[in-house]
């Protein structure tokens, strides 16, 4: 039966044939309108001055509004601007002397009084200043956000702001607040709020230049050469107990020998300052430096010069050289190239006066080699002998071994040691993996220098792996075994021992697949033993090979004449010598729709999809060897099977096409779910 049906009302429908139910759903919406009949104002709370739009109640023909601020209107929908803060009860009448029809309360608030403060209003560029909003406003006003604008184009947002003024100048700062009342939004600009200067160029000259003398007393004249865009104030500190605020101070006298560090501070009107320091030397210069007595070959070290200011001349000898490009620096970096005793000389010259200083240093060579025996192991635990071989012999040397074993770091403070590595996998049965044993040896000359040597040893037994092409089947069963073992390529496999589990085995000296035929039913544990070129062996996991044989099957079906949906019992009637060995049962019927667990020898089934005579196939397995028997017309299924197909198109959602594809039915009826039916 094929037909097309139209649905005319939007709701949920169920259409129901004899055998099933389907659902078609639609949605509908409704709207509710709300009407208002009193006088209204577009704003009832705002900040002065605020303009308000009024609207009268519906149905009025004459109009009179009293705004209570001295103004009134006879317009139907007037506007009024309230200039002063306060509460205004606006009245609506039909005429000036008429009764009050309605009132509206208008609350007019004072505008917020914007204010800001800053952590720093003047200084040197770049100047980082923090800003805080100090605005005063009515509690009825809620600030929703704040925005800051700076005269150099920068912006910021939030209650507080931080901003960097990168160059000199006078800057204004603007603050805008947005509130929940649009008429209360305010912006205010604060002019000349931040004043920024570039640092002054501080400079002065001395006479004599440089200001150095071999004897005291020593008179020095200072001449200010500082410049700035802004007026400057000065502070001189001469390091002789005197100071001055003058631009050009009086001549200063240094009465005793020594090193004097004096400086000049220049400060502009924005409190932006900078400092220049000079050293004045009176008497012979101080020559001195610090360096350990013993140094390590190959190391780079910086000499700490304790000398007074002057010109420096260094002499390092043949075993030491500059580390990089340097010409007589104050604190030179040196590279220790040789070994043995070396003398370092320093000469300091100031104003024609010179002093010298020298120091003897010994350059030590600290190095060590690691001797490990053996360097390869086949199994765990793996004991390895370690010996330290130093380049030079010194009884002061200290040795520190570090071994990394199963995630732990173990330390041994001896020259020679034996360490036993444990199985990193912590399992008796596991896949062998390549383990690289990493060992560190540090040799130390206490308080002077050290050297680190690293060593790696390998522990990697082979991994035997057996791969058969089949693990079960019928007698006689031929199985091909392949080797998929893993091993160190530097130490290849040289021997394969194949064990088939039935008392037979093969030993090969080459890698090749082997075949073996099992002639008896049963379970056989096969495994492989491999040996590498170092004599390390490994045994594979056992793989069980199951061998079965064909079985003469029989079964019954009861009842043999049923209606659609009635239960049918399948029963295994096999009477074979191997009947107790069956390990899997499968029944096939009704176009292979039947289903049951393979462990169930006597399942039940209800025929629901096919009618008429049905064949039944019974298949049973033993160790992967399967036998089958088929009984044609084993059961007759009577009755009708209801089937209904339908088709819908999204372009015509109310039109549905139905097709009756029932089996064995003399009469059918389709129920569409809206009270209508069709036969």
Question: How is this structure best described in words?
Answer:
The chain has 679 residues and is mainly β. The chain folds into 8 domains: 1-20 and 645-679, no CATH class; 40-109, Immunoglobulin-like, CATH 2.60.40.10; 116-197, Immunoglobulin-like (Sandwich); 204-282, Immunoglobulin-like; 289-364, Immunoglobulins (Immunoglobulin-like), CATH 2.60.40; 368-459, Immunoglobulins (Immunoglobulin-like); 466-548, Immunoglobulins (Immunoglobulin-like), CATH 2.60.40; 555-638, Immunoglobulins (Immunoglobulin-like). Helices cover 0% and strands 53% of the residues. It is built from no helices and 64 strands. The strands form 18 sheets. Strands 46, 48, 49, 51, 52 and 53 form a 6-stranded mixed β-sheet that branches. It has a 5-stranded mixed β-sheet with strand order 5-11-10-7-8, with no helix packed on it. It has a 5-stranded mixed β-sheet with strand order 13-19-18-15-16, with no helix packed on it. Strand 51 and strand 52 form a beta hairpin. The chain is flat and about 135 Å long. It starts with a strand and ends with a strand. The model is unreliable at 7-36 (pLDDT under 50).
Put the structure in a nutshell:
The protein has no helices and 64 strands. With 679 residues, it is mainly β. The strands form 18 sheets. Strands 46, 48, 49, 51, 52 and 53 form a 6-stranded mixed beta sheet that branches.
């Amino acid at each position: 039966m094929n037909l097309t049906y139209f649905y005319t009302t939007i709701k949920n429908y169920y259409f129901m044939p004899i055998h099933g139910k389907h659902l078609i759903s639609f949605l509908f919406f409704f709207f509710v309108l709300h009407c208002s009949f009193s006088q209204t104002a577009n704003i009832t709370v705002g900040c002065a001055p605020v303009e308000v739009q009024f609207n009268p109640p519906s149905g009025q023909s004459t109009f009179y509004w009293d705004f209570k601020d001295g103004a009134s209107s006879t317009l139907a929908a007037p506007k009024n601007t309230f200039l002063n803060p306060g509460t205004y009860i606006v009245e609506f009448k039909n005429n000036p002397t008429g009764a009050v029809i309605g009132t509206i309360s208008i609350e007019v608030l004072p505008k917020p009084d914007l204010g800001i403060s800053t952590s720093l209003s003047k200084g040197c560029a770049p100047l980082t200043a923090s800003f805080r909003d100090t605005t005063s406003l009515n509690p009825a006003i809620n600030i929703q956000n704040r925005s800051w604008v700076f005269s150099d184009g920068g912006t910021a947002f939030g209650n507080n702001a931080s901003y960097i003024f990168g160059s000199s100048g006078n800057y204004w700062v603007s603050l805008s607040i947005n509130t929940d009342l649009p008429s209360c939004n305010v912006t205010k600009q604060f002019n000349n709020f931040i004043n920024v200067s570039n640092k002054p160029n501080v400079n002065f000259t001395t006479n004599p230049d440089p200001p150095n003398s071999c004897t005291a007393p020593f008179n020095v004249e200072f001449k200010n050469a500082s410049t700035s865009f802004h007026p400057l104030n000065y502070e001189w500190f001469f390091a002789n107990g005197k100071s001055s605020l003058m631009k050009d101070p009086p001549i200063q006298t240094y009465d005793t020998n020594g090193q004097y560090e004096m400086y000049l501070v220049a400060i502009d009107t924005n409190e932006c300052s900078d400092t220049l320091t000079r050293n004045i030397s009176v008497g012979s210069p101080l020559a001195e430096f610090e360096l350990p007595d013993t140094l390590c070959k190959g190391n780079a070290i910086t000499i700490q010069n304790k000398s007074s200011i002057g010109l420096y001349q260094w002499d390092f000898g043949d075993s030491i050289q500059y580390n990089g490009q340097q010409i007589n620096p104050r604190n030179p970096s040196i590279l220790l190239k040789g070994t043995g005793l070396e003398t370092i000389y320093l000469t300091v010259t100031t104003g024609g006066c010179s002093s010298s200083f020298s120091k003897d240093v010994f350059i030590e060579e600290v190095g060590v080699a690691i001797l490990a025996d053996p360097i390869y192991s086949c199994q765990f635990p793996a004991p390895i002998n370690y010996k330290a071989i130093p380049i030079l012999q010194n009884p002061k040397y200290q040795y520190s071994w570090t071994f990394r074993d199963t995630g732990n770091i173990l330390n041994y403070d001896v020259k020679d040691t034996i360490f036993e590595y444990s199985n990193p996998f912590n399992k008796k049965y596991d896949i062998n993996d390549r383990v690289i044993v990493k060992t560190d040896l540090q040799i130390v000359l206490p308080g002077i220098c050290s050297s680190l040597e690293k060593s790696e040893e390998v522990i990697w037994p082979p991994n035997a792996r057996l791969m058969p092409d089949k693990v079960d089947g019928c007698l006689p069963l031929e199985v091909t075994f392949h080797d998929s073992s893993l091993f160190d390529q530097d130490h290849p496999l040289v021997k394969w021992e194949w064990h088939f589990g039935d008392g037979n085995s093969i030993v090969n000296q080459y890698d090749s697949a082997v075949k073996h035929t099992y002639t008896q039913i049963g379970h056989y544990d096969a495994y492989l033993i491999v040996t590498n070129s170092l004599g390390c062996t490994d045994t594979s996991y056992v793989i069980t090979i199951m061998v079965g044989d064909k079985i003469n099957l029989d079964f019954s079906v009861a009842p043999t004449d049923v209606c659609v949906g009635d239960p049918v019992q399948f029963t295994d009637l096999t009477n074979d010598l191997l009947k107790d060995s069956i390990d899997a049962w499968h029944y096939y019927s009704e176009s292979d729709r039947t289903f049951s667990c393979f462990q169930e020898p006597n399942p039940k089934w209800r025929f629901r999809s096919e009618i008429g005579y049905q064949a039944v196939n019974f298949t049973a397995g033993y160790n992967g060897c399967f036998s089958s028997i088929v009984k044609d017309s084993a059961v007759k299924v009577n009755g009708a099977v209801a089937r209904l197909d339908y088709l819908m198109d999204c372009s015509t959602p109310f039109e549905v096409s139905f097709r009756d594809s029932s089996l064995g039915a003399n009469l059918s009826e389709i129920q569409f779910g809206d009270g209508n039916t069709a036969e």
